Amino acid sequence: VPAYDLAPGTLLVAVGPGASGKSTYAVTAAAVDVVLCLDSLRREIGGDEGDQSVTPAAVERQNALLEQHLSDGATVFLDSTNVEPHVRAQLVERARRRGRPIVALRFLPDLDTCLTRNAQRPVNRQVPPDTLRWQHDLAREATPDALLREGFTAVHHIEPAPTGATVSDDALS
Ligand code: ATP
Ligand code: MG
């Protein structure tokens, strides 16, 4: 159960590089009605969740589902990296149009941890290490202040723990 307040109908957006623990966290987030996961959508569309060539189609599907669930008033957790500012800008705009709060959840283990976990996954689930470094750099630039300036309602940092993720209280809200 998340330790942060969650208004019904909130759009929760993960911000974190590959192998930072987003999907692991998603299964523990009890107050969430719907988890939208880009990897799963890639698998649905292209048969392989690691196949980046189907990402544009998966993003389109993700946005359609997002629109549907937001209009239903569901609390949605968006389980994708969202490290690029232009990607987040579209999400902020979408939530604003629907009048929904949009909350960022930052996942940011140190780079070595991400690289190690990444290397331990099945080959088709591994992100190229250079891509992971790039994602990690961008994720570090997405500070709480920067995210609030982008229009996020609140920002929380998810602290990974061996027994599961917990919310640390350096979070702004
Ligand atoms: P991607 O963006 O590539 O989907 P992700 O952020 O969803 O990555 P996860 O799949 O949740 O990352 O986690 C990556 C790997 O790290 C998994 O193998 C998972 O079991 C492991 N892992 C996640 N959280 C922890 C943790 N707190 N302690 C140890 N291992 C963890
Ligand atoms: Mg994942």
From TrEMBL:
<protein>
    <submittedName>
        <fullName>AAA family ATPase</fullName>
    </submittedName>
</protein>
